[in-house]
Every structure is written in structure tokens, then in C-alpha cells.
Amino acid sequence: MRIACLGGGPAGLYFAISMKRRDPAHQVVVIERNRPDDTFGWGVVLSDETLDNLAANDAVSAARIREHFAYWDDIAVIHDGVKTVSTGHGFCGIGRRQLLLLLQERARELGIELRFESDVPDERIDELRREFDLVLAADGLNSRTRQRYAEHFQPDIDVRACKFVWLGTRQTFNDAFTFIFEKTEHGWVWAHAYQFDADTATFIVECSEATWRAFGFGEMSQQASIAVCERIFARHLDGHALMSNANHIRGSAWINFPRVLCARWSFDNVVLMGDAAATAHFSIGSGTKLALESAIALADYLHSEPDMASAFARYEEERRTEVLRLQSAARNSTEWFEQVERYLDLDPVQFNYSLLTRSQRISHENLRLRDPAWLESAERWFQAQAGNEGSARAPMFAPYRLRDMQLINRVVVSPMAQYKAVDGCPSDWHFVHYAERAKGGAGLVYTEMTCVSPEGRITPGCPGFYAPEHEAAWQRLCDFVHAETPAKLCAQIGHSGPKGSTQLGWQEMDAPLPEGNWPIMAASAVPWSARNQVPRAMDRADMERVRDEFVAAAQMAERAGFDMLEVHAAHGYLLSSFITPLTNRRDDDYGGSLENRMRYPLEVIRAVRQVWPAHKPLSVRISANDWVGDEGVTPDEAVEIARLLQAAEVDIVDVSAGQTSTRARPVYGRMFQTPFSDRIRNETGMATMAVGNIYQADHVNSILMAGRADLVCLARPHLADPYWTLHAAAGIQDGECEWPAPYRAGRDQLQRLAERGEGWT
């Protein structure tokens, strides 16, 4: 094959090397517009795994690269005058310039033609496509090739919020990968610093756009900008200067990071690689790793597949998964730094933990493997904050207090509809279901949404709080749970609104009943879907009646013996239909602005708070994101909703999302709704509960230890295993959980098996 590699960075050079290694007959030329030793970055970070992949692909270049690596195992975080160090992280770095020179040397040895200072204008790209069998577009972040064929590649470029400048220094930071946070007269400025050779370190300075503007960095020369950064970080630089290698750029050289993602990576005989195809934020240091491993993969497939189109398809299929995984981690990391001022008031222990776990690639138990001593000290700190001085149990087993309700741990059995009530009355099914989960070790057990009136039911199988027999059935459950377990019980009350009069959950979810439908109402006459009934728009008399039904339900829950109450104002039900503009089309005092849309839900919540005992906590469940962009409730607006709930004496907000419209397009993943809880908690100071695809003890502990929520709710895991909490405790070898006395023999066997690394099936 005749191959042209556009771009002489790591991607282009290493692909050229990989192709020649597989077949020396290939004619490969690398075309680079800069000089051989020009480079505008400083250090490159790689992992041991990537080094092993390089060695298997080309042992010669891998050995040379390894000779120039700087290794470090620690991460240091300097915040609020405290330096926190954790170990076991295993990084290695090399200067970008050194890496390029080594790859250039290896390329020449293999007979690859290197053309430097050779610019390729747009029209020349078309000529190269005709001249060569394959054109590799590794021409970087601002790829001309990607832009030339944009209609085919369909790039999506998301310019991120923070400003940063890539600098270097002779202060090597040779003891750790170091993050430094400094509070200045214009706001917070932080640095990412790491050694990459014997006497040089990368020093990336980053700040918010507002801070950047306040300093006037955009109007400064590079040297003036560097002088300010040297002043900000003077006590960490120990007299060493900061250096730029971007002198070819006019101005201060500060930029915003662009996240690049392309719908397609190939067109005809042109294929994208490296930053031209996808970018990963510098805060997770994986851009060069992605490029090198992509080069290996494409070279493999070009020699294993029957034709170029098949090779491109396999390359994209394999590498896109890895790229998206890393981009997801990079997005989490990027957003953490963009929002870092939210966390800077955290205790240094919790701040350090939050930083280490920001991308979700490092979890609680993974930290234990890396640095058990540091994690144990952090767990002791968390338990001490919870009033459990001297304990080193995992965060999920820390006690928690809301008003006078004391929970033995932070695990919550989330509300899960059972559809087994008869005329609104909970049955023996409900008794067994909730009793089993209370015996299973969770600190707090929720009922499913219990409806405040017959017409407020979602389905004919939903339970209620509107008849004496309902109260008696719920009281039977409360009495048993309080007598036999340490768990507390929360009653969730709500009204179905526009999603009422529908089929049981295991029939057709949210679909109207085949027969026997009852009238429904909502904030506006907006149906849940084209198939559902059009609800009656509530008038003032309706509002007063429903408000009083919520109050009566709350009083019934108190008499039944519940420890906590939650008002359901999420998921498109009646109160939610007022909150979201997707279904609230009113033009009176209850529609339009957020203040107006919250007016009626707050009226109900305040009325409930008045009758609910002062010593018992009140929660509200919200949908913090309608998943339809600015047309619905956004995470920004959710923060304001939480502030309004705080003012209404709500103690904790149960932060869910979505289910307010059939138009919603959620972004799923592990713990995918936790960021909304995180934001509300750390911007308002209000206690929160996190929900949504949380299913491991590791998830629970990570969320709590990072300060992203105060309680963690698990739904489906508790459907699959009523004893999830007790089993999770055994899995992490926590022997302090209280088991029901008749079950202790089972506990002992489970703990013995766990100690041997076994389980039961």
C-alpha cells in the first residue's frame, strides 16, 4: 500500500511504524507542517498497560521510550493549606518532544519518509486521496481533513467552560502528580503538575472564565500572563520559572478545551485518528494513549480484514467503544474541574476523595487496593463526622440523623410500586415485601407512592391513605418493623395526576385501562401521551380539595406510625405536572415562571409540614432534569427548586430525574442521576438522596465519601435481594451489621465464605 499520514504527532508516526512493522513493502510518508523538534505540549502520561501494548507491537521503540520515562506512584492534592498524599496510582511520563524524536528515529530506521515543514492546504488533501491508497488524518485537534469532509465525518465539537494554559517548569514535582488550588483576589486558580523527565514538569494552569476575565489574561502577552501565574503559585514553584513553548501563538495562549466526537471516522480511503477523531480532556491524561492504541488496532485490521472498508469498520467498532468509555470518564473529570468551586469548601479529606474519584474510573474499593492506609483514615474521618468516633467502617454504615430520626446506616430501600393493593388497601403482599426489606439491614425503607385519593391512584393496584382500613394495614407493618428491626419507615404520598387510571406495571406501563377508567386532572389539559386521557385542568376548588387530601394522608401516616414522610413531586405526577413547563401551560398565577409553577406544590408541602410532627423529617422527591434541554426543568432550575423546598422546611430532597415526558432522552449509565444530587447538595447545603442505577456497595460508598449525597437509594437491587445491605456488608467483610437473631447462623456462614473469597449460589 501507498500510505500518507497527515500529521507527525504520536498518532501519525506510530501508525506509520506499525504498518511498516507488519509489511516492509508498504510505502509510507508522514507529512508534518512543523519542524521535527517543534512541539506545543510538555509531558505525555501513559499507563503500564499501554507500555505493554507498545512492547508487543514494536519492542524496539517501546524499549527506547521506557528508558526516558519518569515514574511516580503518588497523587498530592494541595488545598486550603493542606497537602494530602495518596499512593498506588502508578503513572509514567515522558516529554512530548522526546517521544516524537524517538518515534521519528524509529520511523527512519524502518524506511518511512518524513516530510517536515510541509503544509497541506485543503485542496491538496483531495490530491493526496487520489495519489495514495490510504490517507491517515492524524492532523490534530483542528484537523483540516476532518473539516474538509465534515459532511461525511459529522464532527460534534463541544467547547468546554474553563480556560487553561499549558506551561512547563524546572520545579519537577518529582514526588507526586500534584494538584494545587489557590484562592486569589479574582477567584480560584488551580494547576495540574507532573514530572516527565529528570529536570522538567508539565504545569497546566486552569481557572473559570470569570476568573480569567477578571485577571485580564486575554489582553496580556504570554510573558505577562506567565508572570501572573508565577505569582499565584510562587510558594509551590520554589523560585523556578514557568515556561511556554507556544511562542508562535499571539496573545496569552490560554484556550478552552474542545471535546471532539465524530459520527464517522472514515470516508472512502481517508480515516481519522487521534485528536482528529476524538479528544480526551488533559485531566485524565489519555489522549496519547488513545492515539497509540488506535494506531495498533488500525494496522492490525488493515492486515487481517479482506479489504480496506472492512478494516475501517472493525477499527471504528473496536476503538469507538474504548474512546467513548474514556470520553465519558473525561467528561466527568472535566465537569468536576469546571464546577470545582462547588467543592472547595469541603474538608481537605473529602475534597481529596472527590478529586480522586471524579471520573468514576477510580472507585472506593479501588482506592483501598491502591492505598488502604489513606482510605482507612478517610473512612475514620467520615465516621467521626457522623458522630461515630473511632470507627473505620465504610461510609454506607455511618449513622445519619434527620430531626429526631436516627438511621443506623445510609442505605435506603427506594420506593418500588407493587401493584398488589385491593381498593387502595395494602395487602399481605405489602406486609411481607416491606417487612423482608426492613429485616435486610437497610437504614430506611420507603413505601411505594401511596395515593391520597381513589382518583389519585396510578393504577387499580396502587395503595392509598384515604380509608380507615388503609391506616390499619400500614400500622400493622409499622408495628412489626419497629418491634423486630432497627429500620425506619418512610411513607411516600402522592397523586397520579395525568398519569392516573393506567394499567398495572407488568401489563402496559402508563397505558390507559382497557375499561373502567376514572376521570383524571392535572395542572393543564395536557395528556401524558396521545393514547392517554386528556386531564381536566385543575381549578381553585380542585387545588384546595387535593391539598386537603395530602394533609389527611399525612395525618394518617403519622397515626400509622411512620418515621418520615415524603411528598412525591416528580415523574410527571400531579405536583410534577405543575413544576415542569412541559405540562404546565397555565396563564394564571400557577404557570409561567418557576416561582409560579412552584406555587401550588409549595402550598401542598407547607400544609403537610404544618400537620406532620415537628420532630419527624419531611422529604420531597423531584425530577431534577426533564432530559429535554431548556424546554423543561434543567439541573440549573433544580437547584432553585431545592432552595424553595429548603425555605418551606423540607429536610432532605430525593433527587430523581425524568419520567415527566415521553420526549425525554436520558443519558443512562452507572449512578447517572447522582450528579444532580451532588450539585443540589453542594450548592445549597441541603441534604440529598441519590438515586438511579446504583447497585454496588462500591457505588454507595463512593457517593457518600465524595459528598455527593447524604443517603443513597437502591431500587432494583432490593427487588432482587431483600437482604442486599447485609450481603453487601459481608462482601466487604464488615461484621458489625445487626442480623435478625434467627438468621445469625446464616450470617456466620456467609462471613466465613466471604473471608475465603467465596460466595454461595
From TrEMBL:
- Give the matching InterPro entries: Aldolase_TIM (IPR013785), FAD-bd (IPR002938), FAD/NAD-bd_sf (IPR036188), OxRdtase_FMN_N (IPR001155), YqjM-like (IPR044152)
Domain NADH:flavin oxidoreductase/NADH oxidase N-terminal stretches: 396-734
- Mind telling me which SUPFAM superfamilies this protein's record contains? FAD/NAD(P)-binding domain, FMN-linked oxidoreductases
TM ranges are: none
Q: What superkingdom does the record give?
A: Bacteria
Q: Describe the location of the FAD-binding domain by residue ranges.
A: 5-321
Q: Which PANTHER family match?
A: BLR3436 PROTEIN, NADPH DEHYDROGENASE C23G7.10C-RELATED
Q: What is this protein called?
A: Bifunctional salicylyl-CoA 5-hydroxylase/oxidoreductase
Q: Which organism is it from?
A: Billgrantia ethanolica
